[in-house]
Amino acid sequence: MGTNKTRLYFIDAIRAWAILMMLQGHFIDGLLDNAFRDNSNFVFSVWQYFRGITAPVFFTVSGFIFTYLLIKVPQVGWDNPRVKKGLRRGVQLLIIGYLLRLNILGLFVGEVYHGFYLVDVLHCIGLSIIGIIGAYVLTANFKKWVFPFLLLFVTLILFVFEPLYKEANFHLLPQALANYFTKSNGSVFTILPWFGYATLGGFISVLFSGFKNHKYLYPVAIPMFLIIGSIIIFFSSDFFLALSGYTGIQLFADIFFNNYLFIRLGDVLVVFAIFMLFRKFLTNRTGLRLGQNTLSIYVIHFIILYGSFTGLGLYGFFHHSLSPWPVILGASVFMISCSYLALKYEDNEVLIKRNTNYILKNINIAIQQAFLIVFATLRTVIVKVLRLFGMAKN
After folding, report:
1. 3-class DSSP state for residue 32?
2. Between the CA of residue 223 and those of 9, 71, 152, 228, 276, what are the distances in Å?
3. Statement: residue 320 has pLDDT above 80
4. What are phi and psi of 311, to 5 degrees?
5. Distance CA 347, CA 324 (A)
6. How far is 38 from 129, CA to CA, in rounded Å?
7. 10 Å Cβ neighbour count for 308?
8. Backbone phi and psi for residue 390, each to the nearest 5 degrees, phi listed first
9. What is the pLDDT of residue 310?
10. What pLDDT, in 10s, does the model give residues 100-117?
11. pLDDT of residue 3
């Protein structure tokens, strides 16, 4: 595994756990028959609650990892090589997000389906990376504390004012752009408020970066995360209700009636505390590799489950049609299969990319040759036609 003492392996473990939770969550939610979705059932309600933790944890960890690597470099501002690398990564995630929603069969009939324009997790993480870079560059010439303060401020602003902007339909924007801000057209995720979890992760990473070599880092961080997280989970709703009664501001009452953002924030802190507590046991090489290859796993799962490119996926064949035991067994096989394929891809990534580039190069050459043949043939036909009508010399 190496001896890199600066790497926080528990973060890779959290990301591995989050991606596996996402795999089983998407599989079960997509294929379980509606007749078995009973909130009064203890097992289903527990599963549903923990499924709701997955996305906040994944966004937070993504923001944590990127920011940790960003500020690790001694160069500052635009001179930081991680800035340009991060911008490329953000754009790459946006492109992959759109490609996964592209139906090639639709292109053959000259149609781009509605689903192509919908926004999902990759779009939002890509934009979140770009947003964190923007905050970093803007604060590069200020005191060091300004950057983490801005990240935390963005998180709180997005979470507190969510009741106001979630009702907006953004109809003045082109629908492809509006999909980043509203779910009314079918988007799964929107940049608001999910960017707030990425900035939260960025804020936490700055703290860890500053105290990474301190011997009391974990003895202090673990109980602090556990206590603060528990307080947010169990008391934040009552706090906003009391704040609404004291100030008369309706916004705080609206947060109380749908306080999922702050409760999930508390869940994220508790998850971090648990993984930090057991960090010495979370050193399995395969598990850590899964955490380092979440993009490959996500792409593979999207193709198999939702039928990217072809429209032929498990979701299309078994949508809301399976009973609990088949869907549980299927989810287990699905997690293992996606993980195995992703690790195999990583083991052979260089060879796969080399062969892919070779194939694309040959296709490009063939297209050029075909174009030259068509052009020469067309030129000959045009000349003959012109000669026929006396418009060109023999």
Report:
1. strand
2. 19, 26, 20, 8, 10
3. yes
4. 80, 0
5. 35
6. 37
7. 20
8. 75, 20
9. 81
10. 998 887 777 777 788 899
11. 44
